[in-house]
Write a structure and sequence with these properties.
With 182 residues, this protein is an alpha/beta fold. It is built from six helices and six strands, in the order βββαααβββααα. Strands 1-3-2 form a three-stranded mixed sheet. Strands 4-6-5 form a three-stranded mixed sheet. α3 packs across α4 and α4 crosses α6.
């Protein structure tokens, strides 16, 4: 049975969480009083998921990275394409928004500030069109609900009844795409 090197961080949280970074590092965040035995039990119960995820991380490491120039070209193109799509979808959603920014982000596909400013990852341009539209609609729906409550998801579904398909794509394929960033 394989063992892994695991970094344990005890913090103020109620559950144990496991994260695997792009380098294959495993971090466990656990409530302050969690025993080592309980952490080992949770790691054992998640063994199949951990092994599959480590395989994916290893496979992603083999994919060539974009050059800085290619990434800058994506940002420039994104600054033309994404604001136009945001404007189209905002009319359909029926909301206003502030500034639209396209960035090189390694963890987020999009975000919406309390002031209504929207940020999007330039790698959206490498996603299928329905995935880009889902991320845009998701962030615009935060203009009505600045949370992920059932009301928020009902609003997303009202605009994009098939939103679960692009959401699933992001969960299964998205990290591989982001890992191509230099």
């Amino acid at each position: 049975m394989q063992t892994w090197e695991v970094k344990v961080i005890r913090c103020r949280r109620k559950t144990i969480g496991i994260r695997i970074d792009d380098g294959g590092g495993i971090t466990v965040r656990a409530p302050l009083r969690t025993s080592e035995a309980e952490i080992r039990r949770v790691l054992d119960s998640k063994r199949t998921w951990i092994e599959k995820t480590l395989e994916k991380v290893s496979a992603r490491a083999q994919v060539p990275k974009l050059s800085e120039g290619e990434l800058e070209d994506l940002v420039k193109l994104g600054r033309k394409v994404i604001p136009a799509r945001v404007a189209e979808w905002a009319r359909q959603v029926g909301v206003t928004y502030g500034r639209v920014t396209v960035k090189k982000q390694k963890t987020l596909w999009g975000s919406c500030s309390a002031k209504g400013n929207l940020n999007f990852n330039c790698m959206l341009l490498r996603c299928p069109e329905d995935v880009m539209d889902y991320v845009i609609v998701h962030e615009l729906c935060h203009r009505r609900e600045l949370n992920h409550s059932p009301r928020f998801w009902a609003e997303v579904e009202r605009i994009l009844p098939e939103y679960r398909k692009p959401l699933k794509w992001l969960k299964t394929e998205g990290q591989a795409l982001i890992s191509r960033m230099p």
